[in-house]
Design goal:
There is one protein chain. The protein has 456 residues and is an alpha+beta fold. It has three domains: 5-129, Electron Transport, Fmn-binding Protein, Chain A (Pnp Oxidase, Chain A, Roll); 150-260 and 269-332, 2-Layer Sandwich (Beta-Lactamase), CATH 3.30.450; 353-455, Arc Repressor Mutant, subunit A, CATH 1.10.10. The protein has ten helices and 20 strands. β14 (353-359) and β15 form a beta hairpin. The N and C termini lie far apart (73 Å).
């Protein structure tokens, strides 16, 4: 082999579709576009088998095939002459390829329909440069802005930000600000486990017109790669995302026509209208999922193969920082003494009135007929509003933990995360009802309006 297969790493990212050429035993050729060409080892690649029945029949008759790849950095074409060896439907290689396809499928609600059937393993007989084809321009040379961004300097800058944070809120904001200012990632979000099993909730975002705080994703499902990252507990990195999404959308339309999936509204999440690259990183501490970091970019091929190890290390570091802050705030709040006398609340402004309805069966709060929040944050807000109506103005985290009606878990209740989520949700949707920190483990509920409380 004249060219080392491992030197073509950038060609395996899927930014430019690969062409898969086969021929039947009687000499009839067939050309199809491939979803994935995966590097296996110095002499083997794996091709994704999904819908290509004609290619499959040809390979069964004639094991020789040709794949054309394009390097997204230089636009150089490469021809891989292959010989079919076997198909894998289980194992690490299959799981890695299937995970990427399922992540794309989740954007269009096609998980379980748009899926990998097998990873076909081919021996690479030769690698040859292809002649430059007219009409196939370079996607781009790797610009200075797209040079490797996970540098030691950037990591040091982010570390300093993290060490300077003195609360969970400042820590989360510092992480996303650091990703933008030190790494150049302008659009990002962090989701943490909800008190509902198997559900993640958005707690911090950066770079989007709507913050999306409170948006939920179910583990293994939902919109995009976030739910898949949480389920697999492995980073997912996708380049050429817009092309893949268009492909998945076409498949979804055909699946709907065949009655295989229902047309329904997609879960609203903050996100770019036309993302080209996306990175999802699980935030893990000793196997426990602390959250998921998702980064988007309008630049194709923004996250490179050589960054994989650094991305995993970054995820572990951020997870430890978030978990330590959660535990630190919980310990500090638990040691806070109860107030000797609760200050009387200031009179609310009568210029505006809010109708707040708590649906006890669904543990959900609506304000003026619009959804605000549900589950534990909804129960907390209802307790605060009813207590304030009885003359309370200030509260402590400790008293919430001791309140049996909230049914907080006895271990790792993540109360501080729930309060932060509630406060940000109020700021976004109902700014005249405010949770204002007074000291660590102590806060006040302030009203800029009259509140009419109803329970149903």
């Amino acid at each position: 082999m004249s060219i080392a297969l491992e030197s073509l790493t950038s060609c395996f990212q899927g930014l430019i579709p690969a062409l898969f050429c086969t021929c039947s035993s009687d000499g009839i050729p067939n050309v199809a576009m491939l979803s994935q060409v995966e590097y296996v080892d110095p002499t083997h690649v794996a091709l994704s088998f999904q819908f290509f029945n004609k290619s499959r029949r040809n390979v069964a008759e004639n094991p020789n095939a040709l794949v054309r790849l394009i390097d997204p950095d230089t636009a150089q074409g490469w021809l891989l002459r292959l010989r079919y060896e076997r198909s894998e439907t289980t194992g690490p290689l299959f799981d890695r390829m299937a995970l990427r396809i399922e992540a794309i499928a989740s954007y269009s609600g096609l998980k379980g329909i748009f899926k990998l059937l097998a990873a076909d393993i081919y021996e690479v007989i030769s690698v040859e440069p292809a002649r430059e084809e007219v009409g196939v321009p370079a996607i781009r040379q790797r610009a200075a802005a797209a040079d490797p961004v996970f540098t030691m300097k950037a990591l040091q800058d982010l570390s300093q930000r993290i060490h300077g944070a003195d609360s969970l809120e400042r820590l989360l904001d510092s992480i996303l600000a650091g990703l933008e200012e030190s790494f150049g990632f302008n659009h990002s979000m962090i989701l943490v486990p909800s008190d509902i099993p198997g559900v993640l909730v958005t707690i911090a975002t950066r770079g989007y017109p709507e913050s999306g705080v409170g948006a939920e994703i179910r583990v293994g499902e939902g919109e995009g790669i976030i739910g898949m990252v949480a389920e697999a507990r492995k980073p997912i990195r996708i380049a050429g995302l817009l092309r893949e999404m268009l492909y998945a959308t076409i498949v979804r339309e055909r699946a709907q026509q065949a009655g295989l999936c229902a047309a329904h509204a997609r879960i609203p999440l903050p996100g770019l209208a036309q993302p080209e690259s996306q990175l999802g990183v699980p935030l893990l501490v000793r196997g426990e999922l602390v959250g998921v970091l998702c980064i988007e970019s309008e630049t194709p091929y923004r996250f490179h193969e050589e960054d994989k190890a650094t991305i995993e290390l970054l995820g572990s570091y951020l997870a430890i920082a978030i978990q330590n802050m959660q535990l630190q705030e919980a310990a500090a709040a638990a040691s806070e003494p109860e107030p000797i006398a609760a200050p009387q609340p200031k009179p609310a402004s009568a210029a505006k009135q809010r109708d707040v309805v708590y649906y006890a069966a669904d543990e959900c709060i609506l304000v003026d007929g619009e959804y605000l929040i549900r589950s534990l944050p909804a129960k907390i807000l209802w307790k605060l509003l009813t207590s304030r109506a009885q003359g309370r103005a200030e509260f402590t985290n400790r008293e919430l933990r001791l309140d049996k009606s909230l049914n907080l878990p006895e271990w790792k209740d993540n109360l501080e995360s729930r309060l932060l989520l509630l406060r940000r949700r109020l700021d976004q949707k109902c700014p005249d009802i405010r949770i204002v920190p007074r000291a660590r483990g102590r806060f006040a509920l302030e009203l800029g309006c009259e509140v009419q409380l109803r329970m149903q």
